[in-house]
Amino acid sequence: MILIPSSELPPALLATALILDVALSIRPVQFIRDCLHGVRFPEEWWWSLLVIKVLAAAGLIAGIWVPGLAFAANSGVIAYFLCAVVAHIRAKATGSAFWNNCLGMLALASATLVWSFI
Q1: Keywords in UniProt for this one (predicted)?
Q2: What is the largest CA-CA distance in the chain?
Q3: Contact at 8 Å (CB) between 11 and 60?
Q4: Which among 18, 20, 47, 102 has most CB atoms closer than 10 A?
Q5: d(C-alpha 19, C-alpha 75), whole Å
């Protein structure tokens, strides 16, 4: 297994997508608000998602130089979005936000892992 990404571009792109997601979630735009309400995630815990995504983005960037860190962060992002998929399915919230945002980010994170480490 490769402990340093084979290219800096995939982890950097995933980190950028996560930071953009954080920026849109600080004062959630309507589609993010609808998504979080759709899975019945309590508003008082929305801040925790921002922390998770910022730490994941930092891990992806630092992991370009620190062996194993980008792999761990990338794996964590995949786990995060797998949990989001489960939450959407359990809540029967499988509208466009589920297909575009949730599965889109899961696909991006999975492609990043494959492109960078396998």
Answers
A1: Membrane, Transmembrane, Transmembrane helix
A2: 41
A3: yes
A4: 18
A5: 17
* Amino acid at the residue 67: P
**In terms of C-beta distances under 8 Å and separation of at least 24 residues, what long-range contacts does 3-7 make, across chains too?**
3/67, 3/68, 3/71, 4/63, 4/64, 4/65, 4/67, 4/70, 5/63, 5/64, 5/70, 5/71, 5/116, 5/117, 6/115, 6/116, 6/117, 7/115, 7/116
What pLDDT band is residue 1 in, cutting at 50, 70 and 90? low
The verdict on pTM exceeding 0.90 is: yes
Q: Scan for tokens 């891990």, then name that residue.
A: 59
